[in-house]
Each structure stands twice: as structure tokens, then as C-alpha cells.
Amino acid sequence: MAKKMWAGRFEKATDETVNDYNSSLPFDSRMYAQDIEGSVAHSAMLARQGIISQEDADKIREGLLSIKADIESGKLTFDSDAEDIHMFIEEELTSRIGDAGKRLHTGRSRNDQVALDQRLYLVDEALDVIELLDELIETITDMAKEHLTTYMPGYTHLQRAQPITYAHYLTAYIEMFKRDRDRIEAAASRANISPLGSGALAGTTYPLDRESVAGELGMSGVTMCSLDGVADRDFAIEFASAISILMMHLSRMSEEIILYASQEFKFYELDDAYSTGSSMMPQKKNPDVAELTRGKTGRVYGDLISLLVIMKGLPLTYNKDMQEVQESLFDVIDTIKGVLPPFTGMMKTMTIRKDNMEAAALGGFTNATDLADYLVRKGIPFRETHEISGKLVHYCIENNTTLEKLSLDDFKKFSSLIEEDVYDAISLETCVNKRTLTGGPAPDTVKKYLDKE
What is the mean pLDDT of each run of 10 residues along the chain (453 residues)? Predict the structure, then answer.
């Protein structure tokens, strides 16, 4: 078993069960590239500052890059006896280049090293998530451009409310996902600050150049308090929060996909490649991608709550509890990166049943508000027109018909001011096309929005 870096203080070897319990290598090994990147920058700075020789820095760099290449080729496998990825790499480096490897940790603690690796990893992964999210936004935008005049009912309380277009419906999610993108970018931006140089908690007496290391790593600055640099993981919590909100939006859309693909709605026909069947019922076509997305939302929420609970009672600065942050953060990243590709594929391949959407818009009295507005333009106060329109809807229900199918004589039973122009006023096209305010469903308004995307 490898000698512990802190063994000088102890007389007894660590119990084997404690070694297993303490080890984070099975999950933090994924940060090997970030750990090596940070170590290369740290060693180069140590040489520039005259803390170690340039010769040693060159050996360290060469050794670290060879370790990275061997890990990625599969030539080097992770040692299960190592406590974490940081110790594994340092021990492997020392075995390759000798005493020069022992100088790498000068002016550095695993506390600031771990915090740096997590920040670098989060920023790298956030870029991947943003790219996947951009593809989803682009997919939905393209769909919206094809459905500027595809009419459908808009809902409140899951009851048909007013007519809109499918393009207008999709722009709601475009807006949500754009805000999600902004939140992820903001979280990554705040994470992109270097804690290296914070040491264990109180910095170091070595004349480190923290800013140059941050710059070399592409980070925007350094943490301004060494205690904070090693003690907090709010960057992980903020990122998990941003992903949780994104998952909430994906879950809401999934719920509607599940509903709209049902026989009761028939607005969508999901592609066979993004559906599954039943082992017993041959007629079934199940929206598993949407259902799994809805289910995995709870998983990400659980990770966020875990992060908050882990951190909520910790005294400054580092505590071993914080090792648990990594698994929750990694699970958030893995989950969202697993969700977005099949979700986007499902959206790209689904068939939109325009006929059923329009029939639903026509059949649910979604033009009742426009009938009330029509009467307002005839000079009747809105509260009165609201009542007249409501009575007309009730009359239609009793007679199993719709507003647009009523005769003019039927209309006049409720108001003598109603004329032939009522039919144009309550048509789906008029109901939608006249709503031209910014953010409204009128095709020209939605097209202007989409053209900016």
C-alpha cells in the first residue's frame, strides 16, 4: 500500500475499511485532466518565481503530460490504493521523475487543489451543456418557423382558454431555455475564479504569483480570501440550481408532450425511434423519453438538496464532508448531458397533427373572449359583454354547437348589436392575427421574434 503523504504524524497505518471509506478516487478520477492542467500551471509559476528550478519544472511538465497521455490511451490505470486523483497523479509523477515530483506540491494544499479542479471541471462541463442546450433551442426555433399559422388552443387550468399558434407555444420554451442558458453561463463565470494559493486555509509564505496561474488556466481572477477559497462550494450549488431550473422546464414540456401524444389529444405523433412499446399490449407506443426526463428532474433536485444540506452546517474552512459535493455535482452533470440529446432528437422527429390542434381550438370556445371584445367595440361595457358571451357559450353547450356555427338570429337573441361581421371577429385567424402586441401570438409578431434568434 502506498505511503500516505501525511504519515509522519501517525504511528499506526490507516485501517483498510477507513481507506476504502475515505477514498474518492472512484469518482474524482474523472478530473484527472483538470488536475494535471492545474499542476502544470502551478509548477511553471513556481519556476518563474524562483521557488523551484526551471529544470525541475520542465521535468514536472513532461511527466504530467506523459501521465495524461497514458491515462487517455489506457496504458495507465488508476491505483485503487490511492486516496484520490490528486495523490494518484503526484505519486505516479514522483515514481517517473524522482525528487522533482516531490517539489510540485510546494506552496499548495490539497484543499486549494481540489477546489481548483472542481471549478475547472465545472467550467469545462458547462460549455458542453450549453452546446447541447443551444442545439435544443435551435431545434425548437426551426420547428416554430414551420408552424407560424398552425392554430391550437392555449390553456389555463388545463382548460381550453384562447387560440394561439404552435409557433407561439414553442416560443415560450425558447424563452425559458434562453434564460436557463444565461443562468448556466453565469454560474460557470462565477466558478471560473482560481482558489490556488489559498493553501490549506491561510495562504502560504512562498511568493506565489496567483494571478499568472489563473491567467494561464483561462480563469478570470483569483479568490480574494484564502478561507473562502477553500471553504465554499457555492459555485457547485449555483450550477446545480441552474440545471435544476432547466430540468424543471424540460419536465413541464415533457408533461405536455406526454399529454399531447395521448389518444385524448392526438396533437403529436412521436417517432418510433424515440418511443417504446409494451411487452404485453401490442398497440402501445409509450413516450419514454419524455417520461424519463420528467423522472430525472427529481434526481437533479435531490442532488441540489444534497449539496445544500452538505454545506449548511460546516464551520470554516475545509471539512471532509465536502468530499461528498463531488458525487452530487458529477451526477447533475451526467444527468443533464444524458437528457438533452434524446430530448432534442424526440423534438426533431415528432409529427405535429395540425388538424387535431385546430379542431381543438375551434371546439373549446377559445374565441369567447374575442366575442366579448367584439361587443365592447359596439359600445357595451366589458363586464356586460363578458356576461353576454358567457350566456352564448352556455347556449352552445346546451345545443351541442359552437359560437361560429350559430346563426345571426341566434346571436341577436342575446344582443341586438351583433351583426354579420361577428363571424370574422371570432374566426381563429382574427383571434390570433389581431394580437400583435410584443410577445403576442400573431404570426407576424412571432416571425419577427424568431428572425432575431
Answer: 54 62 83 98 98 98 98 93 92 97 97 98 98 98 98 96 97 98 98 98 98 98 98 98 98 98 96 88 90 98 98 96 96 98 98 97 91 95 96 96 95 96 95 96 97 88
What pLDDT does 165 receive? 98
Angle between helix axes 85-97 and 110-145 (nearest 10 degrees) is 120
Active-site entry in 53, 262, 278, 394: 278
Amino acid at residue number 178: K
C-alpha cell at 194: 482560481
* pLDDT score of 403: 94
pLDDT at 453: 79
Report yes or no on whether pTM surpasses 0.85. yes
Query: From CA 339, how far away is CA 133, in angstroms rounded?
Result: 10
CATH 1.10.40.30 fits 364-452, yes or no: yes
Please tell me the predicted confidence (pLDDT) of residue 282.
Answer: 81
CA distance 28 to 118: 9
Q: Note whether 63 and 36 are within 8 A (CB).
A: no
* Residue in 157, 279, 407, 416 annotated catalytic: 157
- Tell me the backbone φ, ψ of residue 224, rounded to 5 degrees: -95, 0
Q: Where in the chain is the domain with CATH 1.10.40.30?
A: 364-452
pLDDT of residue 1: 45
Write out the residue limits of the CATH 1.20.200.10 domain(s) in the chain: 118-148+163-206+221-356
Whether 278 sits among the annotated catalytic residues: the reply is yes
For domain 118-148+163-206+221-356, the CATH class is mainly alpha
Q: Which amino acid is at 155?
A: Y
User: Are the C-beta atoms of 275 and 290 separated by less than 8 Å?
Assistant: no
CATH of domain 16-106: 1.10.275.10
Q: How far is CA 161 from CA 179, 370, 431, 437, in A?
A: 26, 11, 12, 18
- The predicted pLDDT at position 21 comes to 62
d(C-alpha 67, C-alpha 60), whole Å:
10
Q: Given this model, what pLDDT does residue 364 score?
A: 85
What are the CA-CA distances from residue 15 to residues 1, 21, 35, 83, 283 (Å)?
12, 10, 27, 13, 58
